[in-house]
Amino acid sequence: MPDAHRPATLIALDWGTSSLRAYLLDDAGGVRDHRESPHGIRALPEGGFPAAFAEAVHGWPEALPVLMSGMIGARSGWREAPYAEIGPQGVGPEELAADLTDIADLTGRPAWIVPGVAARGPSGPDVMRGEETQVVGAGLSGGTVALPGTHSKWVEIREGRIAGFRTSMTGELYAALSRHTILADTLSPPADAAEDAAGFAEGLAAARALEAPGDLLGAFFSIRARALFAELSPGSTGPFLSGLLIGAEIAANAGADSGPVRLIANAALAARYATALTAWGRESQTLPPDIAAAGLHALARAARLTGDAT
After folding, report:
1. Cα 119 to Cα 86, 113, 166, 194, 222, distances in angstroms
2. Which of 56, 159, 247, 254 has the fewest beta carbons under 10 Å from its own?
3. In a 3-state reduction of DSSP, which class is residue 184?
Protein backbone atom coordinates (compact mmCIF):
# COMPACT_ATOMS: atom_id res chain seq x y z
CA MET A 1 0.00 0.00 0.00
CA PRO A 2 1.30 3.50 -0.75
CA ASP A 3 2.21 5.78 2.13
CA ALA A 4 -0.70 8.21 2.58
CA HIS A 5 1.75 10.91 3.69
CA ARG A 6 3.73 10.85 0.43
CA PRO A 7 2.66 13.50 -2.07
CA ALA A 8 1.24 12.62 -5.47
CA THR A 9 3.79 13.66 -8.09
CA LEU A 10 2.83 12.01 -11.38
CA ILE A 11 -0.10 10.84 -13.50
CA ALA A 12 0.88 7.81 -15.57
CA LEU A 13 -1.19 6.55 -18.52
CA ASP A 14 -0.68 3.14 -20.11
CA TRP A 15 -2.74 3.77 -23.26
CA GLY A 16 -3.00 0.89 -25.68
CA THR A 17 -5.13 -0.22 -28.59
CA SER A 18 -8.03 -1.65 -26.59
CA SER A 19 -7.68 -0.21 -23.09
CA LEU A 20 -6.50 2.75 -21.06
CA ARG A 21 -5.04 2.40 -17.56
CA ALA A 22 -4.43 5.50 -15.48
CA TYR A 23 -2.38 5.75 -12.29
CA LEU A 24 -1.92 8.52 -9.75
CA LEU A 25 1.58 7.95 -8.34
CA ASP A 26 3.38 9.30 -5.31
CA ASP A 27 7.03 10.35 -5.20
CA ALA A 28 8.16 6.77 -4.50
CA GLY A 29 6.12 5.30 -7.34
CA GLY A 30 3.34 4.03 -5.10
CA VAL A 31 -0.11 3.83 -6.70
CA ARG A 32 -2.44 6.21 -4.85
CA ASP A 33 -5.31 5.74 -7.29
CA HIS A 34 -5.94 3.55 -10.32
CA ARG A 35 -8.52 3.64 -13.09
CA GLU A 36 -9.20 1.37 -16.05
CA SER A 37 -11.16 2.24 -19.17
CA PRO A 38 -12.05 0.42 -22.41
CA HIS A 39 -11.16 3.59 -24.32
CA GLY A 40 -8.08 2.40 -26.14
CA ILE A 41 -7.13 4.24 -29.31
CA ARG A 42 -9.51 2.07 -31.36
CA ALA A 43 -12.44 2.42 -28.96
CA LEU A 44 -12.60 6.12 -28.19
CA PRO A 45 -15.72 7.75 -26.72
CA GLU A 46 -17.60 10.60 -28.34
CA GLY A 47 -15.17 13.48 -28.20
CA GLY A 48 -12.18 11.32 -29.13
CA PHE A 49 -8.81 11.52 -27.45
CA PRO A 50 -9.55 14.69 -25.43
CA ALA A 51 -12.68 13.12 -23.91
CA ALA A 52 -10.93 9.86 -23.03
CA PHE A 53 -8.03 11.76 -21.49
CA ALA A 54 -10.29 14.05 -19.46
CA GLU A 55 -12.19 11.05 -18.10
CA ALA A 56 -8.96 9.25 -17.17
CA VAL A 57 -7.47 12.13 -15.16
CA HIS A 58 -10.68 13.69 -13.81
CA GLY A 59 -10.29 15.05 -10.30
CA TRP A 60 -6.55 14.52 -10.13
CA PRO A 61 -4.31 17.59 -9.59
CA GLU A 62 -4.05 19.59 -12.81
CA ALA A 63 -0.52 20.77 -12.05
CA LEU A 64 0.91 17.25 -12.03
CA PRO A 65 2.89 16.09 -15.07
CA VAL A 66 1.24 13.38 -17.16
CA LEU A 67 3.43 10.75 -18.80
CA MET A 68 1.91 8.31 -21.33
CA SER A 69 3.17 5.22 -23.10
CA GLY A 70 1.77 2.75 -25.60
CA MET A 71 -0.15 3.09 -28.85
CA ILE A 72 -1.21 6.61 -27.92
CA GLY A 73 2.10 7.59 -29.54
CA ALA A 74 1.56 5.56 -32.72
CA ARG A 75 0.82 7.08 -36.11
CA SER A 76 -2.86 6.36 -35.43
CA GLY A 77 -2.63 7.76 -31.88
CA TRP A 78 -3.09 11.25 -30.51
CA ARG A 79 0.33 12.39 -31.72
CA GLU A 80 3.04 10.26 -33.23
CA ALA A 81 6.11 9.92 -31.03
CA PRO A 82 9.50 8.95 -32.48
CA TYR A 83 11.27 5.63 -32.09
CA ALA A 84 14.50 5.33 -30.13
CA GLU A 85 16.80 3.23 -32.29
CA ILE A 86 18.69 0.38 -30.68
CA GLY A 87 22.35 0.86 -31.51
CA PRO A 88 25.43 -1.15 -30.51
CA GLN A 89 25.03 0.01 -26.89
CA GLY A 90 21.30 -0.67 -26.74
CA VAL A 91 18.66 1.71 -25.41
CA GLY A 92 18.27 2.71 -21.77
CA PRO A 93 15.98 4.92 -19.68
CA GLU A 94 18.17 7.94 -20.36
CA GLU A 95 17.55 7.84 -24.13
CA LEU A 96 13.83 7.26 -23.67
CA ALA A 97 13.55 10.10 -21.16
CA ALA A 98 15.50 12.45 -23.42
CA ASP A 99 13.14 12.02 -26.36
CA LEU A 100 9.68 12.52 -24.87
CA THR A 101 7.02 14.10 -27.10
CA ASP A 102 5.37 17.14 -25.55
CA ILE A 103 1.57 17.25 -26.06
CA ALA A 104 0.64 19.99 -23.60
CA ASP A 105 -1.00 21.85 -26.48
CA LEU A 106 -3.44 18.94 -26.87
CA THR A 107 -4.15 18.28 -23.19
CA GLY A 108 -4.11 21.76 -21.68
CA ARG A 109 -1.79 20.51 -18.93
CA PRO A 110 1.83 19.31 -18.81
CA ALA A 111 1.91 15.99 -20.68
CA TRP A 112 4.36 13.89 -22.66
CA ILE A 113 4.46 10.59 -24.60
CA VAL A 114 7.29 8.07 -24.24
CA PRO A 115 9.00 7.13 -27.52
CA GLY A 116 8.74 3.61 -28.90
CA VAL A 117 11.80 1.50 -29.62
CA ALA A 118 13.01 0.29 -33.02
CA ALA A 119 15.51 -2.46 -33.83
CA ARG A 120 17.09 -3.40 -37.15
CA GLY A 121 18.43 -6.86 -37.86
CA PRO A 122 19.10 -9.29 -40.71
CA SER A 123 15.38 -10.09 -41.04
CA GLY A 124 14.39 -6.41 -41.20
CA PRO A 125 13.17 -3.72 -38.77
CA ASP A 126 11.04 -4.34 -35.69
CA VAL A 127 9.20 -1.92 -33.42
CA MET A 128 7.42 -1.77 -30.08
CA ARG A 129 5.36 0.81 -28.22
CA GLY A 130 4.48 0.44 -24.55
CA GLU A 131 6.48 -2.72 -23.95
CA GLU A 132 9.66 -0.69 -23.50
CA THR A 133 8.05 1.06 -20.53
CA GLN A 134 7.00 -2.26 -19.00
CA VAL A 135 10.54 -3.56 -19.39
CA VAL A 136 11.90 -0.47 -17.63
CA GLY A 137 9.38 -1.11 -14.86
CA ALA A 138 10.66 -4.69 -14.57
CA GLY A 139 14.02 -3.32 -13.51
CA LEU A 140 16.23 -3.91 -16.58
CA SER A 141 18.19 -6.69 -14.89
CA GLY A 142 19.95 -8.91 -17.43
CA GLY A 143 18.30 -11.78 -19.25
CA THR A 144 15.11 -12.23 -21.23
CA VAL A 145 11.74 -10.58 -20.71
CA ALA A 146 8.77 -12.00 -22.64
CA LEU A 147 5.56 -10.04 -23.11
CA PRO A 148 3.00 -12.50 -24.53
CA GLY A 149 -0.05 -11.18 -26.30
CA THR A 150 -1.47 -10.28 -29.67
CA HIS A 151 2.04 -9.36 -30.78
CA SER A 152 4.38 -11.07 -28.33
CA LYS A 153 7.71 -9.41 -27.63
CA TRP A 154 10.91 -11.16 -26.55
CA VAL A 155 13.30 -8.57 -25.16
CA GLU A 156 16.98 -9.11 -24.42
CA ILE A 157 18.42 -7.05 -21.55
CA ARG A 158 22.16 -6.48 -21.11
CA GLU A 159 23.85 -4.22 -18.58
CA GLY A 160 20.64 -2.38 -17.72
CA ARG A 161 19.70 -1.62 -21.31
CA ILE A 162 17.41 -3.01 -24.00
CA ALA A 163 19.86 -4.78 -26.31
CA GLY A 164 17.38 -6.22 -28.80
CA PHE A 165 13.94 -7.74 -29.25
CA ARG A 166 11.80 -9.81 -31.59
CA THR A 167 8.06 -9.79 -32.24
CA SER A 168 5.85 -12.83 -32.84
CA MET A 169 2.25 -12.35 -34.05
CA THR A 170 1.13 -15.35 -32.01
CA GLY A 171 -2.11 -14.03 -30.54
CA GLU A 172 -3.27 -12.41 -33.76
CA LEU A 173 -2.40 -15.52 -35.77
CA TYR A 174 -4.42 -17.70 -33.38
CA ALA A 175 -7.42 -15.40 -33.80
CA ALA A 176 -7.11 -15.39 -37.59
CA LEU A 177 -6.66 -19.15 -37.92
CA SER A 178 -9.47 -19.99 -35.53
CA ARG A 179 -11.98 -17.58 -37.08
CA HIS A 180 -11.15 -17.16 -40.75
CA THR A 181 -9.74 -20.46 -42.04
CA ILE A 182 -11.01 -24.01 -42.46
CA LEU A 183 -10.02 -24.59 -38.83
CA ALA A 184 -12.99 -22.47 -37.76
CA ASP A 185 -15.18 -25.49 -38.53
CA THR A 186 -12.91 -27.79 -36.52
CA LEU A 187 -12.09 -25.97 -33.30
CA SER A 188 -14.36 -26.37 -30.29
CA PRO A 189 -14.00 -25.07 -26.71
CA PRO A 190 -12.69 -27.60 -24.18
CA ALA A 191 -15.21 -29.32 -21.94
CA ASP A 192 -13.09 -28.82 -18.83
CA ALA A 193 -9.63 -27.89 -17.56
CA ALA A 194 -8.31 -31.40 -18.07
CA GLU A 195 -9.21 -31.43 -21.76
CA ASP A 196 -7.75 -27.94 -22.13
CA ALA A 197 -4.46 -28.97 -20.52
CA ALA A 198 -4.25 -32.20 -22.53
CA GLY A 199 -4.85 -30.44 -25.84
CA PHE A 200 -2.32 -27.73 -25.01
CA ALA A 201 0.30 -30.34 -24.08
CA GLU A 202 -0.26 -32.19 -27.36
CA GLY A 203 0.18 -28.92 -29.25
CA LEU A 204 3.46 -28.23 -27.43
CA ALA A 205 4.66 -31.72 -28.31
CA ALA A 206 3.77 -31.16 -31.96
CA ALA A 207 5.74 -27.89 -31.93
CA ARG A 208 8.75 -29.65 -30.43
CA ALA A 209 8.56 -32.27 -33.18
CA LEU A 210 8.81 -29.71 -36.00
CA GLU A 211 12.05 -30.27 -37.91
CA ALA A 212 12.02 -27.02 -39.91
CA PRO A 213 10.21 -23.66 -39.54
CA GLY A 214 8.17 -24.30 -42.68
CA ASP A 215 6.72 -27.45 -41.14
CA LEU A 216 4.48 -25.25 -39.00
CA LEU A 217 2.32 -24.50 -42.06
CA GLY A 218 1.51 -28.15 -42.52
CA ALA A 219 1.00 -28.64 -38.79
CA PHE A 220 -1.91 -26.17 -38.89
CA PHE A 221 -3.82 -28.33 -41.36
CA SER A 222 -2.95 -31.46 -39.42
CA ILE A 223 -5.34 -30.26 -36.70
CA ARG A 224 -8.25 -30.80 -39.07
CA ALA A 225 -6.94 -34.21 -40.11
CA ARG A 226 -6.36 -35.28 -36.50
CA ALA A 227 -9.92 -34.27 -35.64
CA LEU A 228 -11.34 -36.15 -38.65
CA PHE A 229 -9.59 -39.34 -37.54
CA ALA A 230 -10.51 -38.79 -33.87
CA GLU A 231 -6.86 -38.34 -32.85
CA LEU A 232 -7.95 -35.11 -31.17
CA SER A 233 -11.16 -34.71 -29.17
CA PRO A 234 -13.27 -31.77 -30.36
CA GLY A 235 -12.59 -29.78 -27.22
CA SER A 236 -8.82 -30.23 -27.39
CA THR A 237 -8.45 -28.75 -30.88
CA GLY A 238 -8.35 -25.10 -29.77
CA PRO A 239 -5.83 -25.75 -26.96
CA PHE A 240 -3.78 -27.82 -29.43
CA LEU A 241 -3.55 -24.86 -31.80
CA SER A 242 -2.60 -22.61 -28.88
CA GLY A 243 0.12 -25.02 -27.78
CA LEU A 244 1.42 -25.38 -31.33
CA LEU A 245 1.71 -21.62 -31.82
CA ILE A 246 3.15 -20.84 -28.39
CA GLY A 247 5.55 -23.74 -28.66
CA ALA A 248 6.79 -22.54 -32.04
CA GLU A 249 7.18 -19.04 -30.61
CA ILE A 250 9.26 -20.30 -27.69
CA ALA A 251 11.39 -22.49 -29.96
CA ALA A 252 12.17 -19.43 -32.09
CA ASN A 253 12.83 -16.97 -29.27
CA ALA A 254 13.88 -18.62 -26.01
CA GLY A 255 17.47 -18.96 -27.19
CA ALA A 256 20.38 -20.37 -25.24
CA ASP A 257 20.04 -18.10 -22.19
CA SER A 258 19.74 -20.43 -19.21
CA GLY A 259 18.22 -17.91 -16.79
CA PRO A 260 14.51 -17.66 -16.01
CA VAL A 261 12.34 -15.88 -18.55
CA ARG A 262 10.45 -13.05 -16.88
CA LEU A 263 6.85 -12.93 -18.09
CA ILE A 264 4.71 -9.79 -18.28
CA ALA A 265 1.12 -10.77 -19.06
CA ASN A 266 -2.24 -11.36 -17.45
CA ALA A 267 -2.36 -14.33 -15.10
CA ALA A 268 -4.02 -16.79 -17.50
CA LEU A 269 -1.68 -16.07 -20.41
CA ALA A 270 1.40 -16.04 -18.16
CA ALA A 271 0.39 -19.48 -16.87
CA ARG A 272 0.16 -20.78 -20.45
CA TYR A 273 3.65 -19.54 -21.25
CA ALA A 274 5.08 -20.81 -17.97
CA THR A 275 3.76 -24.29 -18.80
CA ALA A 276 5.23 -24.08 -22.29
CA LEU A 277 8.61 -22.87 -21.04
CA THR A 278 8.73 -25.77 -18.59
CA ALA A 279 8.22 -28.14 -21.53
CA TRP A 280 11.32 -26.57 -23.09
CA GLY A 281 13.28 -26.98 -19.87
CA ARG A 282 13.20 -23.27 -19.05
CA GLU A 283 12.27 -21.62 -15.79
CA SER A 284 10.04 -18.56 -15.69
CA GLN A 285 8.98 -15.80 -13.34
CA THR A 286 5.70 -13.91 -13.66
CA LEU A 287 6.10 -10.26 -12.77
CA PRO A 288 3.53 -8.36 -10.68
CA PRO A 289 0.86 -6.01 -12.07
CA ASP A 290 1.36 -2.27 -12.56
CA ILE A 291 4.71 -2.80 -14.25
CA ALA A 292 3.89 -0.03 -16.74
CA ALA A 293 3.22 2.39 -13.87
CA ALA A 294 6.61 1.56 -12.35
CA GLY A 295 8.29 2.14 -15.71
CA LEU A 296 6.56 5.47 -16.27
CA HIS A 297 7.60 6.59 -12.79
CA ALA A 298 11.23 5.65 -13.50
CA LEU A 299 11.19 7.49 -16.83
CA ALA A 300 9.55 10.57 -15.29
CA ARG A 301 12.32 10.71 -12.71
CA ALA A 302 14.99 10.25 -15.39
CA ALA A 303 13.42 13.13 -17.34
CA ARG A 304 13.18 15.25 -14.15
CA LEU A 305 9.46 15.70 -14.64
CA THR A 306 8.81 15.14 -10.94
CA GLY A 307 11.56 17.34 -9.57
CA ASP A 308 13.98 14.51 -8.82
CA ALA A 309 16.12 12.13 -10.80
CA THR A 310 17.38 8.58 -10.42
Report:
1. 5, 19, 9, 41, 35
2. 159
3. helix
pLDDT tens digits, one per residue of 114-162 = 999 999 988 899 999 999 999 999 999 889 999 999 999 999 999 999 9
The whole-model pTM stands at 0.91
Residues 6+ apart with CB under 8 A from 7: 26, 27
The burial of 98, by beta-carbon neighbours within 10 Å (0-12 exposed, 13-18 middle, 19 or more buried), is given as: exposed
Tell whether 216 and 126 lie within a shared domain: no
Closest CA to 239 of 257, 216, 223, 260: 223
Beta bridge partners of 24: 11, 33
Is 54 within a domain?
Answer: yes
**Which CATH number characterizes residue 112's domain?**
3.30.420.300
Q: Are strands 161-168 and 152-158 parallel, antiparallel or unpaired?
A: antiparallel
131 and 200 housed in the same domain? no
